[in-house]
Amino acid sequence: MMPTDELRNVSKSPPARSCFSSKTKMEISTRTLMIAIAATVMERCRLLDSIAMVDAEVDADEHLSEQVMDIDRALGELAGPYSEGVMHDGLYPNYETLLASTTESWRLLEGERRDAPSKGNDHA
Fold it and tell me: Can you tell me whether residue 21 is helix, strand or coil?
């Protein structure tokens, strides 16, 4: 259960400016944008790792590269509204710091995953 002060802070969190140039405009909180950006960066890292594992002669990496470019475009669209939200609410990291820390988190998680013993070998 959240204390009343925390609930007030959540409700005071200013919505980010309208994002995505579409007919339907929506207000999204800075917190929601931060989560969306972090998830998008994680997906980008996953795709880049997949590209690195694909054989150089296979055309699958071209499709994955297009997906990375789509993600880069989406991140570009999210950057402005997120940065505006950060200016109004100093509780969140700036855009560049968010990208860098999320990418570093991915690398650490992947390193732990690779270093962890496989569950199939526990019976030895």
Answer: coil
pLDDT-derived band at 76 (thresholds 50, 70, 90) equals: very high
Closest CA to 19 of 73, 70, 71, 82: 82
Q: Where are the domains of the chain?
A: 30-114
For the domain spanning 30-114, the CATH number is: 1.10.287
- CB environment 24-35: b (16+ within 10 A), e (fewer): eeeebebeebbe
Note the pTM of the prediction, 2 decimals.
Answer: 0.67
Query: pLDDT for 2-28, tens place per residue?
Result: 333 433 343 344 444 444 544 444 567
Question: Among candidates 101, 85, 53, 51, which has minimal Cα distance to 71?
Answer: 51
Q: How far is Cα 39 from Cα 103, in angstroms, rounded to an integer? A: 10
